[in-house]
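Bit of a strange request maybe. I'm writing a small parser for structure token strings and I need a real example to test against, not something I typed by hand. Could someone generate the tokens for this chain?
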Amino acid sequence: MTAAAHILCINPWIHDFAAYDFWARPLGLLYLAGLLRDHGCRVTFIDCLDRFHPRHPQTDPAARCGRGPYRKTPIAKPERLMDVPRRYCRYGADPEWITADLRAAGQPDMVLVTSLMAYWYPGVAETIAAVRSVYPKVPVVLGGVYATLYPAHAARATGADRVICGHGEQAVFDALEAYTGWCIRPKTDLGDINALPRPALDLQRGLPFVPVRTSRGCPFSCDYCASSLIEPRLEKRNPEEVVAEIRSWHKWCGVRDVVFYDDALLVNAEKHADIIFDMLAGSGMDLRLHTPNALHVRNITAKTAKRMHAAGMQTLRLGVETTDFEKRGMDHKVGAEEFFRAAAYLREAGFSRKHMGAYLLAGLPNQNPTEVEASIDGVKAAGITPVIAWYSPILGTKMWDAACAASRYDLAADPLLTNNAVMPCLPAFSWELAARFKDRIQK
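Reply from user aminoacidic:
Good idea to test on real output. This should exercise your parser:
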């Protein structure tokens, strides 16, 4: 190669009824950016969701943290969702700003776009159209969760030249060679999570928190979850390298908030997470740790609870889904005794209700609202804050067929219809039901 290939990585807009930045960053895309840069490519990054864009009015210095509302602009509601009495918006930076950013980046050799929720694909399509308007002949490669679960739909609906399913490390190298002739020989085993370079977090505009993935995959195969479809094998990183990564970012810019993106952080904790917690507790970095992804309650022991508290855990979310333990059939992650025992361990370790939340699924196929209310009461009785998670049907999961049978929509016709914000498995969208659950939580 006579000059470095230029790869532009883009995190797309969100089109939805509601969206909120809750420690959200495109970590998979930033891992690919780090990999490409480590192999000699010039990498630039544009985040359409950037809450800290220089043209965005920042009135509150405290807003520069890991959580906060996105800029939103009302847009036309999709025809298929006209029955939903909610306002539809584009979340993220103004398109004019992104067009200027694209021009300023200079023409790339290839563009990588990521995707998350399948029902956000209109934002992906708008993003790719924006790229085409500035660089009409540059190849665009799409990856991420939506691309993995709906590859055929993504190829039709987004305008991408190529769609990557699953892990993108080798696929990105292949695409670069196919479209540009640039040939990269991997330095390490791309299938080894411990051999991959660190994500290029420095490409972001500021670093208010460090997103960390200490493992990928999940040993469970819950009826409602796509984790095992996206990451069929559980792999764990070396604990020492995880802590070294956190330390490097803390040293670089003083960042204190660390957010774990794992789907199974506490599985085999004594050989993995407990080691990380102990090392962080003794590091002198004074960190604040967060787990927006649910922790498996069964893996919380008295020792692990104490270690999490000593390490500085501030936001702790549990995957409970329902406290109807007798009839539990959609997963087998936790029983009644395990749940109340884990809650006691957490309280004894020093966690209070303000730190602990338990996700409860609502809007499931054929679910009676009284079941959700009973779960709210059960979680509150354990000294934990209930957090309602509205169900989104996911193609390929065990619950998909039941969701299709219960839904008022033809879910298979369009991923838009799986949006949890529209309560797709209820007879109709209901503000009253949402308010009913909220009032129950606050009582």
